[in-house]
Specification:
Number of domains of chain A: 4
Strand order of the largest sheet of chain A: 1-15-14-18-16-17
CATH superfamily of the largest domain in chain A: NADH-ubiquinone oxidoreductase 51kDa subunit
CATH topology of the largest domain in chain A: Rossmann fold
Strand content of chain A: 15-25%
Strand content of chain B: under 5%
Order of helices and strands of chain A: EEEEEEEEHEEHHEEHEHEEHEEEHHHHHH
Helix content of chain A: 25-40%
Distance between the termini of chain B: 35 Å
Structural class of chain A: alpha/beta
Largest interface: A-B, 42 and 42 residues
CATH architecture of the largest domain in chain A: 3-Layer(aba) Sandwich
GO cellular component, one term (chain B): plasma membrane
Oligomer: heterodimer
Structural class of chain B: mainly alpha
Keywords (chain B): Flavoprotein, FMN, Membrane, Phosphoprotein, Translocase, Transmembrane, Transmembrane helix, Transport
GO biological process, one term (chain B): transmembrane transport
Distance between the termini of chain A: 36 Å
Radius of gyration of chain A: 21 Å
InterPro entries (chain B): NqrB/RnfD (IPR004338)
Number of helices of chain A: 12
Protein name (chain B): NADH-quinone reductase
Largest sheet of chain A: 6 strands, mixed
Largest sheet of chain B: none
CATH class of the largest domain in chain A: Alpha Beta
C-alpha cells in the first residue's frame, strides 16, 4: 500500500555550475591547510582533551575523548599542530582547529584484537571511526555497548549534487567486503547494503553473513536511510538501527587490514555561488573556505556543510558530510511590517495541502499527509505509529523544501524526538 | 535559502487554473446573470476572509475564488441576493474560516453553503448543467491530475465506477453532467477528500455509489441536488475512510515487522 517503488521520489533541480572538466571523473586531491574537529548536529558532547594547544599530533592520533564514553576518541584527520581548542561551558566541544604539519606521521593501530566483537568495537572507538556510525531513533552516535537490530550501509546517495559513492569505492572492493564482514559482527540482525541500480562493485566479494542488498532508485529520497529503515527494519525505542556510509565501511576494512584509517574521503563541492563544480578527496573536517576559495564567484556567499536541502552553515566539513554547497548570501530579511505580522501571525505553521508532490517527497513510503499532520499537531503517539522513530531531519528535508519551508517539518520532528527521548529516559 | 513551490497558495492557484475551462464555458453559456452571481459570491467570500484576517489574524487565501465559482454554478436559481449571501456566509464561516482557513477545514465550504441553501430554501429549483460545461470538467480534472493537486484515486475511482454503472444501466445518464462538475469542484478538493491513497480510491467510489443510489431512489430530486448531497456525505466520510486505510496499513506493518 505504501512502499517506495523504483520511480517514486523527486528530482529537485538547483542551479549549479558545470564541472571544470566534464569528462573527467577522477577527483582532485585537496588537503586543506586547516581542519576542524567539530561535533555533528545536535547537542555538543562533553570531551576530555588528550592533547594541548600547540602540540604536534600524528594523523589518526586521539585529540580528545568523550567524558561520558571515554572509549570513544576524536582523532586528528591529518598530521597537524593543534592551533586552537574551543570548549563551551561544561567541557562541551565547540571546535578544535588543526594546522597541517607537512612532516607529520600517521598513527598505526593494532588491528589484531579486532577478531572479537569487543576488540572490533574498541578499535573503531580508538581509531575515530565510531562517530561515523549513527543510530536511530533520535540520531547521534550509538553507545559503546549498544547492539543494533540492523545496520544500513549506504552505497547510494540521491540528494542533489551528492557524489556517487561508487566513485569513492572504485578499486576498494576488498576493503568494502572486509568492512561489511566486520559490521555484521556488531549485530545479530541483517546488514542492508543499499546501492544504486546497475552492477555493484562489491556483490561478488561481499558475501558477508546476513548481508541483504537493496536496490534504490535514483530519485530522492530513495537513498534516504530513514525511509529505507522505515520500509525494511523500522527503528524502535528498544530496537535501535544504525547506518554508516559505504565509504566508511570501506575505511573500516582498510583499518582492519592496515591499522590505519584512509586519509581522505570523497567530497563534492558545488552550488550556484561557484564558477565550477569540483569533486575532491579531502580530509574529514576540511576547511570549507579552502575547498572553495579558488572557484567561488565574486560576491558574498554562504558555505554549507551538506546538501542544499539539509546542509547547515559551517566552517568545517561536518563529521558525516560528503558535500559542500556554496550559495549566494541572501540579504538578511527585514522585519515585516507590524500590521502584516499581526495579521498573519496565526498562519504558522502554514497548513499543508496533500498533493502528489508531498507524497513523492516521502518516496511514497508512508502516509505523508497523515504524518505531517501528526507532526504539526504534536501527536507523538500517532507520529510514532507512522514511523517517526526511523526518521531524522534529513529524511524530511525534501518535504520541507517542497512545501516552501513554511511547514517547519525538521524542527517539529526534532522537537518531537527530544520530547519522546525525555519521556523514555524518565 | 532555496525553497520549493508547493505552498498552500501554489496549490490554490493550480486548482483555480485547472477549473478555468469550467468557469469559461459556464460564463459563456450563463451570460451576465452567471457573472453577477459569481461576482456576488466572490465579494461575500472576500468580505468574510477580511473579517477573519482582522479578527483572528488568519491570512486570506485565493482559493475563495474557487468556492465562489462552485457556489455560483451550483446554487439553486432565483434565490435572490440576500438568501445567497446568507448561504455563502454560512458555508464560508462554518465550513472553513472557523477551522482556521483552507487547509484546516473538513468539508468544502461550497458544499456546506449549497447544502444549507438546499435544505433552507427547498422551493427553489436547482440549476441544470449544460452539456458543454460538463465536458469542460474533463480538462479541469486532467489539469488537476497532471499538476498533482487533485487526488488520482478520487477522480479515477469515481470515473471508473460511474462509467461502469452507467454502462450497466444502473445510473440515469442525465445525472452525469452534474456528477462530473461536482466531482471536480467539490469532491476532488485535496483538503476535503481522503489523504491516503487507498482512502482516496474509497472516496471516489463512495461518491459514485452515493450518486447512483440517490439517482435511483430519490424521486423528484434534481441532478445537482443529488450530487451535492453525495458530495456532502462523501466529505463527511473521508476522515473515516482515511482511518480505515491507516488501520489496514498499521496491521500490514505489524504483521511484517512486529511493530508499526
Amino acid at each position: 500500500m505504501f512502499a517506495p517503488g523504483p520511480r517514486s521520489g523527486l528530482t529537485p533541480r538547483f542551479a549549479a555550475p558545470p564541472p571544470a572538466l566534464p569528462d573527467r571523473v577522477e577527483p582532485d586531491l585537496d588537503i586543506t591547510e586547516e581542519a576542524g574537529i567539530v561535533a555533528g548536529l545536535g547537542p555538543a558532547p562533553r570531551v576530555e582533551l588528550l592533547a594541548e594547544e600547540d602540540a604536534h599530533v600524528a594523523r589518526g592520533a586521539p585529540v580528545a575523548r568523550l567524558r561520558d564514553a571515554p572509549e570513544i576518541c576524536l582523532v586528528a584527520p591529518m598530521a597537524a599542530r593543534i592551533g586552537r581548542v574551543s570548549l563551551l561551558r561544561g567541557h562541551r566541544l565547540s571546535e578544535i582547529v588543526l594546522f597541517a604539519d607537512a612532516g607529520g606521521d600517521a598513527l598505526r593501530h593494532d588491528p589484531s584484537g579486532a577478531r572479537t566483537e569487543a576488540g572490533l568495537r574498541g578499535l573503531m572507538q580508538r581509531a575515530g571511526l565510531w562517530p561515523s556510525l549513527r543510530r536511530r531513533p533520535f540520531g547521534g552516535m550509538p553507545g559503546t555497548a549498544e547492539r543494533p537490530a540492523a545496520i544500513f550501509v549506504m552505497a547510494t546517495d540521491t540528494r542533489p549534487f551528492a557524489p556517487d559513492p561508487r566513485l569513492a569505492l572504485d578499486g576498494r572492493e576488498a576493503a568494502v567486503a572486509r568492512g561489511l564482514h566486520a559490521l555484521a559482527e556488531l549485530t545479530d540482525g541483517p546488514v542492508f547494503l543499499c546501492r544504486a541500480p546497475g552492477p555493484g562493485p562489491f556483490t561478488a566479494q561481499a558475501a558477508a553473513p546476513r548481508l541483504r542488498e537493496v536496490i534504490c532508485g535514483r530519485r530522492h529520497p530513495q537513498g534516504a536511510v530513514g525511509l529505507r529503515a522505515h520500509a525494511l527494519c523500522p527503528a524502535g525505542l528498544d530496537r535501535p538501527v544504525w547506518d554508516i556510509h559505504a565509504e566508511d565501511a570501506a575505511a573500516l576494512g582498510t583499518l582492519l587490514d592496515t591499522g590505519q584509517m584512509p586519509p581522505t574521503r570523497l567530497v563534492a563541492v558545488c552550488g550556484p555561488a561557484l564558477r565550477t563544480a569540483r569533486l575532491v578527496r579531502t580530509q574529514p573536517g576540511a576547511d570549507l573556505r579552502g575547498l572553495t576559495r579558488r572557484i567561488a564567484q565574486p560576491g558574498a556567499h554562504e558555505l554549507l556543510s551538506g546538501t542544499p536541502l539539509d546542509g547547515h552553515p559551517a566552517h568545517w566539513l561536518s563529521p558525516r558530510d560528503r558535500q559542500v554547497t556554496a550559495l549566494p548570501r541572501a540579504a538578511a530579511p527585514g522585519a515585516p511590517h507590524w500590521l502584516l505580522a499581526a495579521l498573519t501571525r496565526s498562519a504558522r505553521p502554514a497548513p499543508v495541502i496533500p498533493t502528489a508532490a508531498l507524497e513523492q517527497s516521502f518516496g511514497g513510503a508512508l502516509p505523508a499527509a497523515a504524518f505531517v499532520r501528526a507532526l504539526g499537531a504534536g501527536d507523538d503517539e500517532g507520529a510514532m505509529r507512522l514511523g517517526l522513530l526511523s526518521l531524522l531531519e534529513e529524511d524530511v528535508a525534501l518535504a520541507d523544501y517542497v512545501l516552501g519551508g513554511t511547514a517547519g517539518l525538521a524542527g517539529q520532528l526534532r522537537a518531537m524526538l527530544e520530547r519522546i527521548r525525555t519521556e523514555h529516559a524518565a | 535559502m532555496m525553497r520549493g513551490i508547493w505552498t498552500r497558495e501554489t496549490v490554490a492557484l493550480l486548482l483555480i487554473a485547472a477549473c478555468l475551462p469550467l468557469a469559461a464555458f459556464w460564463l459563456w453559456y450563463g451570460g451576465p446573470g452567471a457573472a453577477a452571481r459569481l461576482g456576488l459570491a466572490a465579494l461575500v467570500l472576500a468580505a468574510w476572509q477580511l473579517v477573519f484576517l482582522l479578527v483572528r489574524a488568519q491570512p486570506v487565501c485565493v482559493v475563495g475564488a474557487l468556492t465562489a465559482l462552485a457556489v455560483a454554478m451550483l446554487a439553486p436559481e432565483g434565490l435572490g441576493p440576500w438568501r445567497l449571501v446568507l448561504g455563502i456566509s454560512f458555508g464560508a464561516v462554518m465550513g472553513e474560516l472557523v477551522f482556521g482557513g483552507w487547509g484546516r477545514n473538513v468539508v468544502h465550504p461550497a458544499t456546506v453553503a449549497l447544502s444549507f441553501l438546499g435544505f433552507g430554501f427547498p422551493a427553489f429549483a436547482w440549476p441544470e448543467i449544460a452539456l458543454p460545461v460538463a465536458w469542460a470538467a474533463i480538462p479541469a480534472g486532467l489539469i488537476g491530475l497532471v499538476s498533482g493537486v487533485m487526488p488520482v484515486g478520487v477522480l479515477g475511482a469515481a470515473a471508473l465506477l460511474g462509467a461502469a454503472a452507467t454502462g450497466a444501466g444502473l445510473v440515469d445518464p442525465g445525472v452525469l453532467p452534474a456528477a462530473g462538475v461536482v466531482l471536480v469542484l467539490l469532491v476532488a478538493d485535496p483538503v476535503c477528500s481522503a489523504s491516503t491513497r487507498p482512502g482516496q480510491w474509497l472516496t471516489g467510489a463512495l461518491y459514485a455509489a452515493l450518486t447512483g443510489l440517490f439517482a435511483a431512489g430519490w424521486h423528484g430530486a434534481a441532478p445537482v441536488q443529488i450530487t451535492v448531497a453525495a458530495a456532502l456525505l462523501t466529505a463527511l466520510a473521508a476522515p473515516a475512510l482515511d482511518e480505515t486505510a491507516l488501520a489496514v496499513w498499521h496491521a500490514n506493518r505489524r504483521r511484517r515487522h512486529g511493530r508499526t
